[in-house]
């Protein structure tokens, strides 16, 4: 009988029904029982979480057990749940960062003691950073929903609070003049220009553009599985992007290489693209703003929401609408102007054709 191959620290055992199960056991870390079978995407995500001390947390010397019913207890359970493990690795990093910063101060507090006024005070303490306060509220709301399912709470006090109003449309959408300024500063053949073209001509996020490479090209199309949503899009390679790829020295696995000939880390690419924008005098522009610019271009061309979603990978019309609102408003106002002027021309023509009515 051929022995099943399993990743490091993973072993198979049989449950009381004789069904094969799998667990992660590593010295210095808590044991983790897998919910998905080896070879599946779910298993891969769980295994990665265990390797990074998320699914199977490090056992801290001198801190053998957390207090039952505390937020430390709840968060430990949450990190092992599908609620936390199902989103992408990048999303988990963001969530964990928010939770851990809050946990330093409130981890030992009891879940049952949390009240709406406490949440409101915590959010107020983060002002003037309204976006950060709203992010904390979202994570606490998710935690408390999980607490209800775990039997650690009966209600969610976060629901009774309100998020702060954000007077912003988010990341600045690049204008055509700003795109032209960047292209003038970074001509075709430079890595900086290829980075812009990969995002602008595909509508993808910077994190996805960072890892695009020759292996993503299939039958003259670019096939990308998005890091954040795991959605897969298959896009025709437009001439401008093809020219940029062909003119730029790239790696065997990724198109965008650092000065040292290696792929950029997520943070490294963000910092480098910030530098390239600054060199072009574009202080307000960002990588994500290019994704919005791509969606704007599609909207200005008259593309439907379904067509735009086929490029960007968004799943709802509301998400696309946030990117294309300005273009939609302009197109609608132009159409309304045409209708108004056509009606005025028709009225004048009728008056000229009936001078007696005009005299009367």
The overall pLDDT, averaged over residues, is 87
CATH topology (fold) name of the largest domain: hpI Integrase, Chain A
Percent of residues in helices comes to 40-55%
What is the terminal separation in angstroms? Answer: 104 Å
Biggest beta sheet summary: 3 strands, antiparallel
Order of helices and strands: EEEHHHHHHHHHEEEHHHHHH
Structure at a glance:
The chain has helices at 41-51, 71-78, 82-85, 89-106, 116-124, 130-149, 176-185, 191-200, 206-209, 239-247, 266-279, 287-300, 305-312, 317-353, 355-359, and strands spanning 10-14, 20-24, 32-33, 217-218, 221-225, 232-236.
Q: Can you walk me through this structure?
A:
The protein is mainly alpha-helical. The protein folds into 3 domains: 1-64, no CATH class; 91-168, Tyrosine recombinase, N-terminal domain (DNA polymerase, domain 1); 176-318, Intergrase catalytic core (hpI Integrase, Chain A). Helices cover 50% and strands 7% of the residues. The protein is built from 15 helices and 6 strands. The strands form 2 sheets. A 3-stranded antiparallel sheet has the order 1-2-3, with no helix packed on it. It has a 3-stranded antiparallel sheet with strand order 4-5-6. The longest helix is centred in the last third of the chain and has 37 residues, at 317-353. The protein is globular. The N and C termini lie far apart (104 Å). 26% of the residues are buried.
């Amino acid at each position: 009988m051929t022995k099943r191959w399993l990743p490091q620290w993973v072993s198979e055992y049989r449950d009381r029904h004789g069904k094969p199960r799998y667990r992660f056991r590593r010295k210095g870390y808590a044991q983790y029982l897998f919910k998905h079978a080896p070879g599946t995407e779910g298993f891969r995500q769980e295994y990665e979480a265990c390797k990074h001390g998320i699914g199977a947390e490090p056992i801290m010397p001198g801190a053998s057990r957390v207090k039952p019913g505390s937020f430390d207890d709840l968060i430990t359970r949450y990190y092992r749940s599908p609620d936390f493990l199902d989103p992408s690795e990048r999303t988990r990093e963001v969530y964990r960062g928010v939770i851990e910063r809050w946990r330093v101060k409130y981890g030992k507090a009891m879940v049952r003691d949390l009240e709406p006024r406490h949440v409101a005070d915590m959010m107020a303490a983060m002002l003037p950073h309204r976006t950060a306060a709203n992010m904390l509220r979202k994570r606490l709301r998710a935690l408390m929903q999980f607490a209800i399912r775990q039997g650690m709470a009966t209600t969610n006090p976060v629901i009774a609070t309100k998020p702060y109003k954000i007077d912003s449309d988010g990341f600045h959408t690049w204008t055509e003049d700003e795109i032209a300024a960047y292209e003038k500063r970074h001509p075709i053949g430079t890595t900086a220009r290829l980075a812009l073209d990969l995002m602008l001509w595909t509508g993808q996020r910077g994190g996805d553009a960072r890892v695009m490479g020759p292996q993503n090209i299939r039958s003259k199309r670019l096939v990308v599985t998005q890091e954040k949503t795991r959605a897969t899009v298959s896009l025709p390679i437009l001439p401008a992007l093809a020219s940029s790829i062909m003119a730029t020295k790239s790696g065997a696995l990724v198109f965008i290489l650092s000065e040292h000939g290696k792929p950029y880390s997520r943070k490294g690419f963000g910092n480098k693209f910030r530098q390239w924008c600054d060199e072009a005098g574009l202080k307000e522009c960002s990588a994500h703003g290019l994704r919005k610019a791509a969606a704007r271009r599609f909207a200005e061309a008259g593309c439907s929401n379904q067509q735009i979603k086929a490029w960007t990978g968004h799943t709802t019309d509301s998400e696309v609408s946030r990117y294309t609102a300005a273009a939609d408003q302009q197109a609608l106002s132009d159409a309304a102007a045409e209708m108004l002027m056509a009606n005025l021309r028709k009225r004048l023509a009728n008056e000229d054709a009936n001078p007696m009515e005009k005299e009367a």
